[in-house]
Amino acid sequence: MTTAVRPAAAADVPAAAGVLADAFSDDPLMSSIWPDPSDRTRALPGYFATSLRRFHLPAGGVSLAADSGGAVAAVAVWDPPGQWQRSLLSTIRAAPALLAAMRTRLPAALAISRALEAHYPPQPAWCLVNLGSTTVHRGRGHAARLVEQQLRHCDREAVPAWLVCTRESNITYYQRFGFTVTEKFQLPAGAKPPMWAMTREPR
Q1: Structure pTM?
Q2: 3-state secondary structure 101-158
Q3: How many CA atoms lie within 13 A of 94 on its CB side?
Q4: Of 202, 185, 24, 51, which Cα lies nearest the Cα of 120?
Q5: Per-residue confidence at 88, pLDDT binned at 50, 70, 90?
Q6: Given pLDDT bands bounded at 50, 70 and 90, which one contains residue 69?
Q7: Reduced 3-state DSSP string for the chain
Q8: CA 56: distance to chain centroid?
Q9: Angle at the Cα of 66 (from 175 to 6), degrees rounded to 5?
Q10: CB of 55 closer than 8 Å to CB of 94
Q11: Per-residue pLDDT reduced to its tens digit, 170-193
Q12: What's the rounded Cα separation, in Å, for the pair 158 and 125?
């Protein structure tokens, strides 16, 4: 199996958003924002496209893994140290597209976003915001290649990596890369499953 890893560009946004929408279609956190599956299916591509275009691509933390045919198989979205907080200007610019994607679920999304921010690490760290692969590519190591590449960069910079794991069953997946659980917390009412903050120190 051949996996090509590269930084994402603006032209990659539709494909990358589609991969993430597929990967997070039944994610507990996304399900808390959009409890109705049909609403979630409709909203996720636009939500991820806006998030990538307005927030993450400009920061330079989005990478892709492509299969041997060139199709985008997995996407990793990282916020560089000190850049996870959104500026007021970028939020205002993204507002129309976010409103179109979220509609009546915007208040729930904002409440969950604020709750997550309270658990971000106080020290500078690379924050893994999203990691996902398409259903047809899952289990083939594409996402792992993206994580390994970024962690090598973290080690060279001597900077920790941090993430929020939304499924207890995925904790062992991240432990294989050296992450350890540092906190278990609950999100606001309506977001029923617990979350696990995980940190990996540089090596």
Answers
A1: 0.87
A2: HHHHHHHHHHHHHHHHHCCCCCCCCEEEEEEEECHHHCCCCHHHHHHHHHHHHHHHHC
A3: 22
A4: 185
A5: very low
A6: confident
A7: CCCEEEECCHHHHHHHHHHHHHHCCCCHHHHHHCCCHHHHHHHHHHHHHHHHHHHHHHHCCEEEEECCCCCEEEEEEEECCCCCCCCHHHHHHHHHHHHHHHHHHHHHHHHHHHHHHCCCCCCCCEEEEEEEECHHHCCCCHHHHHHHHHHHHHHHHCCCEEEEECCHHHHHHHHCCCCEEEEEECCCCCCCCCEEEEEECCC
A8: 10
A9: 80
A10: yes
A11: 999 999 999 999 999 988 765 567
A12: 10
Six-digit token string for 30: 């996304």
Cα separation, 166 vs 143, in Å, equals 16
32 and 192 Cβ atoms separated by less than 8 Å: yes
Q: Does pLDDT of 9 surpass 50?
A: yes
User: Could you tell me if 147 and 129 are in contact, meaning their C-beta atoms sit under 8 angstroms apart?
Assistant: no
